[in-house]
Give the backbone structure.
Amino acid sequence: MKKLIKEIKKFDKLYGYDKTNEPKIVNLVFSMIGLVGEAGEASNIVKKIWRDGITEEKIDSLEEELIDILIYLIKLLIILDTDFDKAWLKKSQKLIKRWGNKPRNRKENLNDTINRRS
């Protein structure tokens, strides 16, 4: 992840996207709006795959949008000066505490949820 963060910072400086002189809130809002926009584009491609079937062209388009999403996520981490490894460790510990160390059967959990609602 550190290599990817470094590459994105380098790219932004090289092509004039480095906005570190802007107020943090401006960068945060811009990147979040970008992230949501890219997620919408990816969702639209998935909708077309669902409706029309999967093709190599759609897969290529989806991959491109997913990379755009990743770039905006990384930009948000950069803006917040987040240590990804530290943040991941903290989050994974919360997940283990919540769900335990044992694997879960998602199908059984879904069936339990459906049965509770019936």
Remarks:
- The first helix runs from residue 2 to 14.
- The mean pLDDT is 88.
